[in-house]
């Protein structure tokens, strides 16, 4: 019986991790936005254990009913609905964490826009890692590669940057 329980915990942990990945968050960010502790998210991810209230909490913030959240036989998650419901619930029920998170993302976008408009930084193509390192060094703004990549992609879509493909999934961005 213990082996069965441990296997189910592991599957639930993988499911929750997939949700965190879809939301493009770090586990610590997900914890803060859902009013859980980072240790709780770590325990779920590592299958160390969690209680039903924790799962109900995640169900509430993700907008996923328990039968969908715990449907371990399905690998499918409606990404668009998940993202919409999650941010709507966080904004409504945890506005201070929501505003803090959005402010950080906004600041990163603004810092990149400043580099586009006022500097020669993007005169030569730059990879995401190079942009991240520069922002950390010059602006003391720390962010994940995923956050920087999303900001760069958004600015590309707005027509403020051009890009060229490097390898299978990577791009270099330039003016």
From TrEMBL:
InterPro entries reported in the protein's UniProt record: Lambda_DNA-bd_dom_sf
SUPFAM superfamilies per UniProt: lambda repressor-like DNA-binding domains
Superkingdom field: Bacteria
Single GO term (MF): DNA binding
Name of this chain's protein: HTH cro/C1-type domain-containing protein
